[in-house]
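Input record, target 12 of the design panel.
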């Protein structure tokens, strides 16, 4: 079933071109956006991964009321096909879907274990402007490592089999990120009847997570996808 409820529709001009980093600024609730470039801090962690910096699309640090920080980085896309030989993805009915791979890095700079919970439902999302177009999101189970960044689709393997087996299923992620630790995971996107330049980002508002997706010049939107919680109350 297509999900037609959209949290918000954003202007295409709000998305940055390839190679630029976004540092959003907004206030709301316990967690707020901070306008600082985390590429130069995090105890130098990022600077150890030169390939990582080349693919960062957004790099946002969220600061809690007690001054603790959570950084979320989202990649530019790779893909266009599910395999390096140009093979495209078709569902069981023969419909063609454009494919793009992304990764998201979550860095826990607080003193408490962070619970990351993401759910991409089986529903499709009607967030693009062409008639009958829609988006489907998935969480491939492949383990991310930094040496995979230069590879095709960031090193995700067995894409066709994974999408065939999960096309009409929800995919979920539950991960505990310890203090001063990080976790990087993949996101796979399929779009139907919406071709263009894709951009995507996991964003945090208070404790709620949203996935922001655009296909220029076919508009964009945000869908709710989970939350971040802590095993101990923040500020204790």
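The sequence produced for target 12 reads:
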């Amino acid at each position: 079933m297509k999900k037609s409820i959209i949290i918000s529709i954003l202007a295409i001009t709000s998305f940055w071109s390839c190679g630029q980093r976004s540092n959003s600024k907004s206030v709301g609730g316990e967690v707020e956006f901070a306008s600082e470039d985390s590429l130069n801090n995090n105890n130098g962690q990022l600077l150890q991964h030169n390939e990582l910096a080349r693919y960062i699309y957004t790099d946002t640090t969220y600061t809690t009321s007690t001054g603790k920080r959570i950084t979320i980085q989202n990649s530019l896309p790779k893909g266009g096909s599910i395999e390096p030989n140009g093979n495209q993805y078709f569902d069981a009915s023969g419909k063609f879907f454009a494919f793009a791979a992304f990764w998201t890095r979550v860095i826990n700079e607080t003193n408490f274990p962070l619970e990351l919970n993401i759910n991409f439902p089986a529903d499709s999302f009607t967030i693009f402007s062409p008639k009958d177009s829609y988006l489907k999101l998935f969480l491939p189970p492949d383990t991310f490592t930094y040496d995979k960044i230069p590879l095709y689709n960031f090193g995700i393997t067995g894409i066709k089999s994974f999408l065939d087996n999960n096309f009409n299923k929800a995919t979920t992620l539950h991960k505990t990120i310890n203090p001063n630790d990080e976790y990087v995971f993949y996101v796979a996107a399929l779009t139907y009847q919406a071709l263009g330049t894709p951009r995507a980002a996991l964003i945090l508002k208070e404790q709620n997570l949203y996935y922001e997706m655009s296909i220029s010049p076919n508009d964009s939107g945000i869908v709710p996808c989970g939350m971040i919680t802590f095993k101990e109350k923040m500020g204790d």
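The helical segments are 50-54, 159-166.
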